[in-house]
């Protein structure tokens, strides 16, 4: 704001410099916003005070198990963990907490040391003493505040997630924490807890949202009580802290929000409501192993659209607040699911939180020091468990669409979920081979009504040459081998017809070369994995302009101001 006043008095070159930096700042913010400020919603997008999209790209950080201490403080200094989250490109943390942390004063005023002592976790005491000596004698609620502050100091937003009432691993149908009226789920106590938590963090600017309750479930769950209590909870949080977004989870372990389609949530305030949903491989049992991956992806993604994905079409933000896989790469069910998940999440450009950041737990389900194979970090929290997986996740960290990103210059990206990369043209040189590169700097494509994929602003189209051969870029785009249909039940194969009449599918070989091969496992076969042939054509915006042409960055933002 100040910049505008100053410009009138500056020399011409300085004006240009300032404008240029303004452009760069604008582009930068549009891409990697982490400073939330106060967030609100604009249709299906979460936006900042300037109306620019803020995509939630979060990790779950667990703080609701029996010790009620954010995991990992016995392994690494808090600031190191927070900086790690930030440096991996995540802009927020979904920090879990149990109601008793804030409603039971004698519990909240236990020190970290005593909490561990009560559970016999002496190694954790020694670890926190070493790595976080300033935290070991804080009370549990002070330690929780210290974690939030450390994240804020490192420009990481926080979503306070009420995970459960009683501290402990979550969730089962019979744990008494599942639905309003369950043994440990007193609605009044819950409202009190939400109110106190919202109040405690009222002036803490990096706390941008509160999710009211994780994974509603169990025999008592029903739609009428969902509306009754979730609206009460939402109003209570908003009254105590009008700055935070209010995030509502669905029924049946946060898989089902279908009821919203017919009956909207009626709140007294606007522009703050977000829905959340969970989606794992095991959400569908062993379906990914037992079925044909194309058919399962088609079915499961279709089901997801009916139960929660439809919300974005109705103008509500959808936050996939839990997804993830065993990062050892040995779980076939997980491996197949995650390709489909990435395709859907990129296609809809959803907000999300990965389960999880933690490499291990102090104490989970009776096991001391349990390793978390779904965790981004290794057992000792000193390194990334699987950099390949992290790189794939990072493809989804930047927004593809939305206010401040898509305006004026929409185009497509050809996203390859298995690698987390996008199909692009290597350079401005006349290289005839398409290649894979980071989606953040990928070429924009056009997908014409004739099913031709051309690089935007050029005559080059994607073309199949022969089975087993690299695909190429050509400027003669009239043949059947330049037409690409999205086929199979997953609609994730890009298929073309060679001049000899045979069909091939775009594929990525083991050296990451883009080739065309016979289409894999189009139906029935459940022993094969088509992952290398899955591509998703997604809508995107301005980002590639940044790297493909510096001069064109000057045009759009400047002419619009
Ligand atoms: C409150 O916390 C104390 C100390 O941990 C515990 O003994 C007590 O049972 C808790 N009260 C409730 C209502 O859970
Ligand atoms: C929404 O709630 C208000 C009162 O809080 C009520 O007046 C209004 O009729 C409700 N609207 C719908 C569509 O239920
Ligand atoms: C990382 O995951 C990939 C599969 O996504 C797997 O092949 C690889 O072995 C994993 N690496 C480690 C170190 O676990």
TrEMBL record:
Provide this UniProt record's keywords sorted from A to Z: Glycosidase, Hydrolase
GO-annotated biological processes: polysaccharide catabolic process
Species this chain originates from? Clitoria ternatea (Butterfly pea)
Query: Which protein family is named in the record?
Result: Belongs to the glycosyl hydrolase 5 (cellulase A) family.
Domain of life, per UniProt, equals Eukaryota
Q: What is this protein called?
A: Glycoside hydrolase family 5 domain-containing protein
Q: Mind listing the GO molecular function terms for this protein?
A: hydrolase activity, hydrolyzing O-glycosyl compounds
Where does the Glycoside hydrolase family domain lie?
A: 77-356
């Amino acid at each position: 704001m100040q910049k505008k006043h100053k410009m009138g008095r500056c020399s011409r070159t300085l004006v240009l410099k300032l404008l240029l930096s303004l452009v760069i700042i604008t582009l930068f913010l549009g891409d990697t916003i982490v400073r939330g400020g106060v967030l609100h919603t604009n249709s299906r997008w979460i936006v900042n005070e300037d109306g620019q999209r803020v995509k939630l790209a979060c990790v779950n950080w667990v703080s609701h198990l029996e010790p009620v201490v954010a995991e990992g403080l016995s392994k690494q200094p808090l600031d190191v963990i927070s900086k790690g989250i930030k440096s991996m490109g995540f802009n927020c943390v979904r920090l879990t907490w149990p109601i008793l942390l804030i409603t039971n004063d004698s519990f909240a005023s236990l020190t970290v040391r005593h909490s561990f002592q009560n559970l016999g976790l002496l190694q954790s005491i020694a670890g926190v003493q070493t790595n976080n000596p300033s935290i070991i004698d804080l009370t549990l609620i002070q330690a929780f505040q210290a974690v939030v502050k450390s994240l804020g100091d490192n420009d990481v937003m926080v979503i306070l997630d009420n995970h459960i009432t009683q501290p402990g691993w979550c969730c089962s149908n019979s744990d008494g924490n599942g639905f309003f009226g369950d043994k440990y789920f007193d609605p009044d106590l819950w409202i009190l807890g939400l109110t106190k938590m919202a109040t405690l963090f009222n002036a803490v600017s990096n706390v941008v949202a509160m999710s009211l309750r994780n994974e509603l479930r169990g025999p008592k769950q029903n739609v009428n009580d969902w509306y009754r209590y979730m609206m009460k909870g939402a109003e209570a949080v908003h009254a105590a802290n009008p700055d935070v977004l209010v995030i509502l989870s669905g029924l049946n372990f946060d898989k089902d929000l279908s009821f919203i389609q017919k009956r909207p949530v009626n709140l007294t305030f606007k522009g703050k409501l977000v829905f959340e949903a969970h989606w794992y491989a095991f959400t569908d049992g062993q379906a990914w192993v037992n079925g044909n991956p194309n058919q399962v992806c088609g079915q499961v993604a279709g089901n997801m659209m009916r139960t929660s994905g439809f919300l974005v079409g109705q103008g509500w933000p959808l936050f996939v607040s839990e997804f993830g896989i065993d990062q050892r790469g040995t779980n076939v069910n997980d491996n197949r699911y995650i390709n489909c998940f990435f395709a859907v999440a990129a296609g809809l450009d959803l907000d999300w939180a990965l389960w999880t950041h933690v490499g291990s737990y102090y104490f989970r389900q009776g096991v001391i020091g349990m390793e978390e194979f779904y965790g981004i970090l290794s057992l000792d929290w000193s390194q990334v468990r699987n950099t390949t997986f992290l790189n794939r996740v990072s493809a989804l960290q930047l927004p593809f669409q939305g206010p401040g990103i898509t305006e004026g210059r929409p185009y497509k990206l050809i996203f390859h979920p298995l690698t987390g990369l996008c199909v692009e043209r290597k350079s401005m040189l006349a290289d005839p081979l398409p290649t894979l590169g980071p989606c953040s700097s990928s070429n924009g494509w056009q997908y014409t009504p004739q099913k031709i994929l051309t690089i935007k602003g050029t005559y080059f189209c994607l073309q199949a040459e022969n089975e087993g051969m690299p695909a190429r870029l050509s400027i003669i785009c009239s043949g059947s081998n330049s037409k690409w249909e999205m086929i199979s039940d997953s609609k994730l194969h890009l298929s073309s017809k060679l001049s000899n009449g045979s069909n091939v599918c775009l594929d990525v070989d083991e050296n990451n070369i883009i080739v065309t091969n016979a289409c894999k496992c189009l139906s029935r076969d459940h022993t094969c994995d088509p992952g290398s042939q899955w591509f998703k054509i997604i809508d995107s915006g301005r980002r590639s302009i940044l790297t493909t042409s510096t001069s064109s960055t000057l045009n759009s933002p400047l002419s619009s101001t």
